[in-house]
Amino acid sequence: MLDQIKGLHHVTSMARDAQENNSFFTHKLGLRRVKKTVNFDAPDVYHLYYGDEQGTPGSVMTYFPFPNIGPRRGGAGEVGATVFSVPEGTLPFWRERLAAEGVGGLSETESFGEKRLAFAGPDHDEFALVEARYDSRTPWTGGAVAGDEAIRGFHSVSLRLRDGGATEELLRFMGYQPVDRSGAVTRLAVPGGNGADVIDIETIAGSRADLGAGSVHHVAFAVENRARQLEVRKALMDTGYQVTPVIDRDYFWAIYFRTPGGVLFEVATNEPGFDRDEDTAHLGEALKLPRQHEHLRGILEGHLQPIAD
């Protein structure tokens, strides 16, 4: 069993409209945009990152806004809800705030003994807030949600699978341990993780999901540095997984592999961080381009949709 993985690093999803996406996360949810860059493989598409003040691993939601993308079709083999952590007693604040902002899909439940508020994103993305009793992470309060109610970071993601057995075995190998079961949902967590250390496996019947606007593209797990990442890569490959070479993503190094249930996993380093090319006070303000795309700056600045902060 591995011990290098400490929880989630980031979650990357797809959207239709960059401005709508930016407004939802920075204004309605009060997160900070920590990077405005482009998709490495499709530089005519933004890659937007939102999180806490520094873009701490475990807090960062990222998006590829494809202007002409079709809608997602939900089903098996996808990430279901992406769940954020908020302090105890703050769900009434959030329900009132999100309702006032016109956010749809609001529904309060209790899961694994935690109060939970589900809501929908602009592309019918599935989100929830969970009151997490022991989350001591420092939130970003320099934006639209300036008080103690602010989001701390990720709580968990759910994996929606036809058969969760093989993926549960994989997660156990990655250092996760089962902590509870409720109906068709198995909860696993990393002991001593980074706060974003819970994965729920939900077993469902039905057809396979199709990617589209509102889909999670991949889930990334956090390791401290490149040395730990190489250890994880070797162990996964020794177990039979097809893992990509290490890829430089400017703000972290990444490896990718497909899980038995069909979800794409990434293992990303905590280094070097989002302040490698911007001062912390000005994260996410300027358009930052990967080195190989810098020569396209004039074209891209004329092509990409302007984003009003």
Automatic annotation (TrEMBL):
Domain of life: Bacteria
Cyclic nucleotide-binding domain ranges (all copies): 77-137
Signal peptide as annotated in the record: none
SUPFAM superfamilies from the UniProt entry: Glyoxalase/Bleomycin resistance protein/Dihydroxybiphenyl dioxygenase
Keyword Oxidoreductase: yes
Ranges for domain VOC: 7-132, 153-270
Keywords, comma-separated and alphabetical: Dioxygenase, Oxidoreductase
A GO molecular-function descriptor: dioxygenase activity
Alphabetical list of PROSITE patterns matching this protein: CNMP_BINDING_3, VOC
PANTHER family in the cross-refs: RING-CLEAVING DIOXYGENASE MHQE-RELATED (PTHR36110:SF2)
Name the record gives this protein: Ring-cleaving dioxygenase
Organism: Aquibium carbonis
